[in-house]
Amino acid sequence: LFTSNNIRHNYLINLLSKISNKLFVIQENRTSPMSKFQKHHTNSKIMNTYFKKVNDAQIKLFGNSSHENTKKNIKILPIQTGDLNNHSLTFLSNYLESDIYVVFGTSYIKGELLDFLVKNNAYSIHMGISPYYRGSDCNFWALYDGNPHLAGATIQLLSKGLDNGPILY
Fold this sequence. Notes:
The relative contact order is 0.16. The chain is of the alpha/beta class. It is globular, with a radius of gyration of 16 Å. It has a six-stranded mixed β-sheet with strand order 3-2-1-4-5-6, covered by helices on one side. The two termini are 19 Å apart. The chain has helices at residues 7-19, 35-41, 45-62, 89-92, 111-119, 138-144, and strands at residues 2-4, 23-29, 74-80, 102-104, 123-126, 154-157. The longest helix is centred in the first third of the chain and has 18 residues, at 45-62. It has six helices and six strands; from the N terminus they run E-H-E-H-H-E-H-E-H-E-H-E.
């Protein structure tokens, strides 16, 4: 699993650990769940309000989720947000021993890691309805644009293009 350290991402780690013999996680760490947002959108009151509501909803739905690892089957490699593409496949190799690969909530993956994941038919969970909204903050933009019917999530195969792999759901 390639993911982040937001509440929803930790919740998914816990769910997957319950059905996995061994769960390898490469987790991009932000200093706080709101840090990515605050860094990029501090001048926007509407975005500030939206992402505070998203964070509050996550806490309400998932609790203040952290890694439970009660089965001791989670192996986590923490890295800083944005550093994923700076690591070689050799460096990541102990975390690339999976039967299934899932990408959910990471920074944009490129280079040899992207090639590896595409070759291994990685799944991508994208918070946005593809192909209408790609990249980050997609549900914000769908609502901002007056398209609430395009707020949601897409499960697709990872591809070399940004959020444009074959859509599964």
